[in-house]
Design brief:
17 strands, BirA Bifunctional Protein, domain 2, ATP binding, ligase, Helix Hairpins, coiled coil, eight-stranded mixed beta sheet, protein biosynthesis, alpha+beta, 427 residues
């Protein structure tokens, strides 16, 4: 959410930032509605002062033994006028808020210009994509060949974009998640959380999915929402609260299912587990002092990269352009893992993690503040989130990278203590 006072003072900078997002000069319409709202507030304040003065006159008149009927009639009229103004003020305040809540965060100054992924900037790469002496298969052929990945059964149970994992692949998913959680909690100091998987409107509003992206969410018949990512409950752990400065940073991680309707994704990534309506993910969330959020983004990205490095998976890090970033982000790094079985065995980089600094954007929506020691004034925290990592896409990368010509899969060394064996083959 944007600060209306900041827009009043710095409308040109506000417009410049959102033009990078492809939104043309929104401040004019926002400030016009804001001007209407402020004018009504001024009228309301004048009317309230008139009411108070009339009430004082009643007291004075009674003390003098004078009649007060005319003054009381005037007060009644003023009260009716105030009630109408209050209703109009609430309406205009809601209209200003509705205009602000659908506008995305302003990109940081160093975010590349551009409206899509074609303008993203390569920051670094890690590892060399594996060379094969045979044509590598994709994860669908591998999983179905092992008899452990069933898309037909998933579709029969729940419709398109669902899968049933069986036997060793079911255990592999659990092993990957346990490995990731151990790294993030033991090496990087994140606190593990088991949050609700169903949340109220306020939670999805606070992290920015509502109202603009309701079509991409699943809603229960009684109005709750299935979480699209653990970012929602983890970030909202500090909603409507004031955190002591000495408690910062707060770092949370959780392994949860995620639910997305994938509205608008028709025809995209229809094969396999790349884009599912239900998937699992280990999420990272940081709540930090505003002065430290840029450094925290680098740290969080490194945490996610460490998982890929320990798994021996080749990847690259991209700085996203303004038009490719998520709604709430002011700066984002994408980690893209190499999937050798994609593109008919030619291989392809695919996103496996997005790490974003959201600044105070979510905190304003959630009303999440911190208080510095010795100061009365509070300020908004900064929030960050990132995948650490998406489990199914990590599994895809492992299956395709560690496949053998006979269709069996070598288990990465770091997963063997969790998985209990070094090979996935026909059972």
């Amino acid at each position: 959410m944007h600060d209306i006072q900041s827009i009043r003072k710095h409308s040109a900078a506000f417009d410049k930032g959102l033009i990078k997002r492809g939104i043309a000069s929104p401040s004019k319409a926002v400030l016009a509605k804001d001007s209407e709202w402020r004018a009504i507030i001024t009228k309301l304040q004048i009317a309230q002062r008139s009411r108070n003065e009339a009430s004082r006159q009643v007291y004075v008149a009674k003390c003098k033994g004078e009649g007060v009927e005319d003054i009381i009639a005037e007060i009644s009229q003023i009260k009716h006028y105030i009630a109408n103004l209050e209703e109009l003020e609430r309406k205009l305040a809601a209209e200003v808020n509705a205009m602000l809540e659908i506008l995305p965060n302003i990109p940081a100054d160093d975010v590349p210009d551009g409206l899509d992924e074609n303008s993203n900037i390569l920051m670094r790469t890690f590892g060399t994509p594996r060379s094969f002496n045979f044509l590598p298969k994709d994860h669908v052929l591998l999983g179905e060949g092992l008899g452990m990945m069933d898309f037909s059964l998933g579709a029969a149970l729940a419709g398109s974009r669902f899968v049933v994992l069986k036997s060793h692949l079911a255990k592999l998913e659990r092993s990957i998640a346990s490995f990731m959680l151990d790294i993030h909690t033991k090496e990087f100091g994140y606190t593990e959380i088991v949050p609700p998987f169903i949340v109220r409107d306020a939670a999805v509003y606070g992290t920015g999915q509502l109202p603009k992206f309701s079509d991409s969410l699943f809603q229960t018949i009684d109005g709750y929402w299935l979480i699209p990512t653990a970012e929602v409950p983890l970030t909202n752990l500090v909603a409507d609260s004031i955190v002591d400065e000495n408690e910062l940073p707060l770092r949370f991680t959780a392994y949860t299912p995620c639910f997305r309707s994938e509205a608008g994704a028709a025809g995209r990534d229809t094969r396999g587990m790349i884009r599912q309506r239900q998937f699992t993910k280990v999420e990272l969330v940081s709540i930090v002092h505003p002065d430290n959020s840029d450094d925290e983004l680098e740290r969080m990205t490194n945490c996610a990269e460490t998982i890929l490095q320990k798994l021996g998976l080749a990847y690259r890090v991209m700085k996203l352009s303004a038009g490719d970033m998520g709604f709430t982000a002011q700066r984002t790094y994408d980690l893209e893992v190499w999937l050798p079985g994609q593109n008919e065995g030619k291989g392809q980089y695919r996103e496996i993690s997005s790490c974003s600094n959201c600044g105070s954007f979510q905190a304003r929506r959630m009303k999440s503040r911190f208080k510095a020691k010795g100061k009365k004034k509070t300020d908004f925290v900064h929030t960050l989130n990132g995948s650490g990592l998406a489990i199914e896409r990590t599994m895809i990368a492992i299956l395709e990278t560690y496949q053998k010509e006979d269709g069996s899969i070598s288990v990465p060394d770091v997963l063997q203590p969790y998985f209990g064996r070094d090979l996935i083959n026909l059972v």
